[in-house]
Amino acid sequence: MSAQAEQHYFVPQPSKWPLVGAFALFFLGLGAAFTVNGVGFGKISLAIGFAILLYMLFGWFGQVIRESESGKYGHQVDLSFRWSMGWFIFSEVMFFAAFFGALYYARVISVPELGSLSYKLLWPDFNAVWPTQVAPAGVEGYRPMEAWGLPAINTLILLTSGATVTWAHWGLIKNNRTQLVAGLFLTVVLGMLFLGLQAYEYRHAMHEMNLTLSSGIYGTTFYMLTGFHGAHVTLGTIMLAVMLFRSMAGHFKPDHHFAFEAAAWYWHFVDVVWLILFVFVYWL
Length: 284
What we know:
By secondary structure, the protein is mainly alpha-helical. It folds into two domains: 10-73, Helix Hairpins, CATH 1.10.287.70; 74-283, Four Helix Bundle (Hemerythrin (Met), subunit A). 74% of the residues lie in helices and 0% in strands. The protein has eight helices and no strands. It is globular.
């Protein structure tokens, strides 16, 4: 990093990428609205939106990577990146807090209240236990998901992946490129394994346990929390895969590697969310 970059805050030139992103969001929103309402152009619009979004992501992030690797970013830019990633993760914490709050409300407040004497005249056969077993009309009963099967295996996988990404970070700090690449590769493989097992779990739950989104409040909260977490694991795996390819290309230095740190922060966040989810969704 040059001395000039350390002393001066980098100000980029006017960029086309925010405008490109606006077009991507426009086509995605339009396509989603049309698709939900059965309009034929909806899927085409969605495809156009995703294509523009991918073009923007590759172009914008590629520009940032080139600027970083050329030494244009100094301490102030690094600090801005750290604050930005910190606030982003905080927003994700609030995102999951809302869903865990919904689960808490259903289990601790709604279900006991519906089982109280005040509601016995309306629902005399309702049993105030979790998971609720009163299915909507026309919907067959379901079996709840057990904790000590695939969920426990996936917990072990994610905990191991947290250790491998930390091992990779230690390798980067020690300037051990082999350890860095090996640790990232193992973490990406473990992330993909987690997603594969979760997909198998969903298939088993839907076809053999009759556990679907229509399975009352239990089914809704189960798929809402595990599904959104799976989406975050997917994003984290993609981020770590990019870090792997960059590491193989010789990017990152022991004293200049915030992109790697940001991906590692996000992955540790995903790990912590899963531990909370495993306890309150699967175990208790």
